[in-house]
Write a structure and sequence with these properties.
Blueprint: E1 3-11, H1 15-26, E2 31-34, H2 71-78, H3 89-105, E3 109-112, E4 116-122, E5 125-130, E6 135-143, E7 163-164, H4 170-182, E8 186-189, H5 193-204, E9 211-215, H6 242-256, H7 258-264, H8 269-275, H9 278-296, H10 301-312, E10 316-329, E11 332-339, E12 346-350, E13 352-355, H11 369-376, E14 396-398, E15 403-405, H12 411-414, H13 420-438
Parallel strand pairs: 1-2, 1-6, 2-3, 6-15, 7-13, 8-9, 8-13, 9-10
Antiparallel strand pairs: 4-5, 5-6, 10-11, 11-12, 14-15
Helix pairs in contact: 1-3, 1-13, 4-5, 6-7
Bound molecules: flavin-adenine dinucleotide.
Amino acid sequence: MRSDRVPVAIIGGGFSGTILAAQLARRGVSSALIDGSGRVGKGVAYSTAEPAHLLNVRAEGMSAWAGEPDHFARRFEAEGGDPRGFAERRLFARYLGEILDEASAGGRTRVVEAFATGARRDDGGWIVELADGGSLAARVLVLAIGNQEPETLASFASAGERYIANPWGEAARAAVQDLADSGGSALLVGTGLTMVDLVLSLDAAGHRGRIVAVSRRGQVPRSHGDFDPSPVEQRDVPHGSVRALWRWLRRRSAAVGWRAAVDSLRPHSQRLWQSLDPEQQRRFVRHARPWWDVHRHRIAPEVARTIAGLIGEGRLEVIAGRIVGTERVGDALQVTVRRRGSANPQTLPFAYGFNCTGPLHTIGRTRDPLLRSLLDAGQVRPDHLGIGLEVDERSRAAPGERLWALGPLTKGRYWEIIAVPDIREQAAAVAEDIAMELADEPAI
Ligand SMILES: Cc1cc2nc3c(=O)[nH]c(=O)nc-3n(C[C@H](O)[C@H](O)[C@H](O)COP(=O)(O)OP(=O)(O)OC[C@H]3O[C@@H](n4cnc5c(N)ncnc54)[C@H](O)[C@@H]3O)c2cc1C
């Protein structure tokens, strides 16, 4: 049984945790990077082995290091890629792996392959409990556990193994292969980036059956495309009101094109978000988010062409509507869908249904044992919207308690904190804050 001491314990070895460990190593601070999923140095987004899964940000925007904008682009170019192009996600995983290897080789980062099941305060620091029965004492604790798994869809309660709750798991891979072999129909609930990934996986596996994707509005991520950037000053954008911001965005889109208008808000998005009061933020999440997500988080043009081609061939249908019932009949699912604006529901047969609705929205419903225990003990609190954890302006989840949170867990405060360009800045700032916090203490 393990019982060690480290200055910093980072829970979660996805992009957020990995780049934080590397940033700390650069500052001479040692850390343990704890992840039990077998995906250390990759996380959920970059552990795909599927060549068709491309980054949705151009290579020139994907540097892991704050202040070194072309760090990944140079790596991509060395392999014959175009910095303005979209690399395979598995190449980005190799790049992150190299960064982790470098930090580990320098002796400052130690990978601990285990799930954390709990954490408690002890002697001014933290004790992290691990699923393998071991524990680890640390002066500082950082939560970098990413998005939480989606809630299970109640309408699929009777579907058994024909319902795939986690589209990133082993069961999903097996279902994709089964669909490719049998040619059966697939139902994807959700029409965002997860749906796009799954359609690409099905296509790459040789599936030639029918795919139906359903969401309330039927909005699909838009394609990247070339445009002339049209930057704006922060003072030129209305703050404090979703309605005023929306009007501005519409006018600006008409003048310079929607891609230029949306991207011109990137440098200001965190301050814009923070200028909205909680009611305005709720309004944004409820009404504006579906539009914002598909225009802001765009897909590579080659991916968009594949999706458009499948729709054109009639192999993929995107429905705006709602699932009103599901019944398991033998090996198939009979799913009743009500299309938006139609009074007559339609029942369709599928071999599998996949939950592609994206991450859990209500943090209080997390099933992660570590997060659950910290929430139950009141050591962390949901943010004012309940979508992540409450953190201060330095991403400290509990000021004075040496507890930080990183990445999507902090979206209530920052909103735009799910993509690499935003997380790398946060990781650099948190590393600096931790290094200063520990500066006066003798090394362990
Ligand atoms: C499919 C997909 C594609 C994306 N593509 C892009 C892109 O092209 N460009 C871009 O900028 N952004 C992209 N993103 C967004 C972004 O890169 C991710 O949101 C970001 O990588 C988040 O990283 P993370 O480390 O915070 O979380 P994660 O990657 O989710 O990593 C968290 C890790 O914590 C581990 N963990 C959780 N709980 C525990 C525990 N109790 N104990 C130990 N370990 C635990 C998990 O196993 C996991 O490995 C994508 C996201 C997804 C999902």
